[in-house]
Design a protein that fits this description.
mainly alpha
């Protein structure tokens, strides 16, 4: 059964799979061409790695969407306050789209006279929603001391936008190293294609001779180390 806008399929108790499933046909084709079961076994390991990478990328996108939702919420509530609404009314008018159940809890607290600041701090625990901690602090100060909530929320929104722009700029700068790492990772595939075009039959050597098995083991280990090293460097740059 196809799911998630055509990108994932459900196999019952076996779970859901997405585009990572294409690793298996690729391994099957290589196994038939090379007359060995090794490519199929490698495709299973590749499926697990690609699945993990897709999950990490999906989590990153969800975090970015929540961060954008927090910015929109702060700006929307500030705008409603500038229009003359009371804090609870402003929050109800703005809503909390993009924050899921945690956002619904915040809106419910505003609607029924609950502890809005506490609900905001709970929602801030979601990845990407840390900016709600500042909103909770402003809300609590405004309720207890009558301070201007609109100006505080506008400053929070401006600060979060600046952080987002800085993060986007850093990702743009890291696009080059990522592309270089991907090209280097695909060089062995290019070597196999070139060897096949020259009539060297590299698949037979790699899959049916002890020397080829050793090359596969050493080459695979070096490939994994190189990719892992590059990913670690990029992650450290993004976090730093």
């Amino acid at each position: 059964v196809e799911g998630e806008a055509g990108r994932r399929w459900s196999f019952g108790r076996w779970g859901d799979v997405g585009r990572e499933i294409w690793c298996l046909p690729a391994g099957l084709v290589l196994g038939v061409l090379g007359g060995s079961v090794l490519p199929l076994l490698a495709s299973v390991a590749g499926l697990l790695l690609v699945r993990r990478w897709l999950a990490a990328r999906g989590a990153l996108r969800a975090r970015d969407r929540r961060a954008a939702a927090v910015i929109g919420l702060c700006a929307a509530v500030a705008g409603e306050l500038r229009a003359g609404r009371q804090p609870a009314q402003a929050l109800l008018a703005a809503g909390a789209p993009g924050l899921g159940a945690a956002g619904s809890a915040v809106v419910a607290a505003a609607r029924y006279g609950g502890d809005v600041a506490r609900a905001l701090r709970e929602a801030a625990r979601l990845p990407g929603a840390a900016g709600l901690t500042g909103m909770a602090a402003c809300w609590q100060v405004a309720v207890e001391g009558g301070a201007g909530l609109a100006s505080g929320l506008e400053r929070i929104a401006a600060g979060l936008r600046a952080q987002r722009d800085q993060r986007d700029e850093l990702r743009a700068q890291l696009a080059g190293p990522r592309a270089t790492a991907l090209m280097l990772a695909l060089l062995p595939v290019g070597g196999l294609l070139m060897g096949g075009a020259l009539g060297a039959d590299p698949l037979r050597v790699l899959l049916h001779t002890p020397a080829g098995w050793g090359c596969l083991a050493v080459g695979g280990l070096l490939e994994w180390c190189g990719v892992a090293w590059t990913v670690r460097i990029v992650a450290a740059a993004e976090d730093g």
